[in-house]
Amino acid sequence: MSLTLLRRFFVSAILLLLGYAAPAQKFTAERSELSFFSDGIVEDIDAKNNQVGSLFDAGNGDVVFIAKIRDFVFPKSLMREHFNEKYMETEKFPKATFQGKLVGVKAGSPGEQKIRAVGKLNMHGVTRDIDVPGTVEFNGGKVLTKSKFKVRLEDYNIKIPTLVWQNIAEEVEVRVDFTYKPI
Is CATH 2.40.128.110 what the domain over 24-182 is classified as, yes or no? Predict the structure, then answer.
């Protein structure tokens, strides 16, 4: 083994060990719930997705999540079918993503902290900047995040057929409730 190659090996090994010695700041979703509520005149629509993948870096606030649209569960199967086929066009747009930062996080500080999630929400083929309120809490090695905000369907080119305009609100309430564990 050449001296240069040996040096690279030892430098890589030291950097790797230093990385493991640093306190855990990176987290993955242990439990996730992304849900929405539409307050329609004729009928309310409430759906939940507990299969959302997410990563959070408490050191710099970076956060990302990905949700498969088909994983939303509805109280009625017909609602799910219409949601996937007529509104979200799931075959064409199979996922929703968020990539951004949790601003105002004091990593490891006890108690609930008010924060903002700032970044890009991509849904139905449209990416928009969002800035929404939320909370974060460091508790027993886990990180709990919550947020509740409104999304205008028109902003994401989600069309409501005139026949059912009374069933679906133009604005839906989105709720995020994730529990992270260290990676």
Answer: yes
